[in-house]
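Q: Convert this sequence to structure tokens.
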Amino acid sequence: MIPFVRDLTFEYGRVDQVSPLIRRVVANNPGPFTFNGTGVYIVGSGEVAVIDPGPDLSEHLDALLAALRGETVTAILTTHTHADHSPLARPLAERTGATIYGRPAPGAGEHAVKLDEGHDELFRPDVAVTDGQTIAGPGWTLEALATPGHASNHVCYALLEENALFSGDHVMGWSTTVISPPDGDMTAYYASLDKVARRGFATLWPTHGPPITEVAPFLAAYKAHRLDRERQILEQLDAGHGRIREMVPVIYAAVDPRLHPAAAHSVLAHMIHLTRQGVVATDGEPGPDSVYRRA
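A:
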């Protein structure tokens, strides 16, 4: 089982010092995909970086500006362009003069999946970050790690001075992350999980929820959970359930039914991955309404 961590002491809009180099302000946008809300991280002191500024809410912008009073914001970094992460980047940059770093929003195709969090489709960074790129200030260095999977443009940021990783939605302590095709990709997600695990970080700071401090066992359990989902999917196929809509109520019986549509997208992501691996077959391209079978 995944050793979830869900206890977070906070007040909306309050700035909390959570490590020697990190402060956090939580936006008041709780929900089934955001947990308590978007946790915005301020890195450094005097000349600072802001990571995942969050939703474009006036009271949230006011809280961030209050937390940053007397300081210079040199960089605003986004992990990806879901609407609970990046929309405040431009308004905050206009108020502070900061440079926005991240990756452009992916094209919203005709069949793009729309979850509650959605995509900030108009987001355009000032600097499109590349894997391994560093952004630095006095006493802090952030390294971009491309981590596609949850979103094709997902990037985590390593704080080298604390051997910590701002993990966005790639790894969260309170829940697994949704992998929703066509932009989400399970094959890429597995590779990104392994990439993070190889780095040996001491702490992960997700955008939602508390930090993860037992990183190696948590990541191992996180991946094992996905592999167990694959086992459950194959069991459903062996039981004669070839459609995703037949599988989800069984596999996710213990999950809030409000999340079953999102769960169906994750099962589709697994199906696409298993089809690529030659384990599962279907006629034509794998889709939400396809009939699947063992290969």
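The domain at 223-294 is CATH 1.10.10.10 (Arc Repressor Mutant, subunit A).
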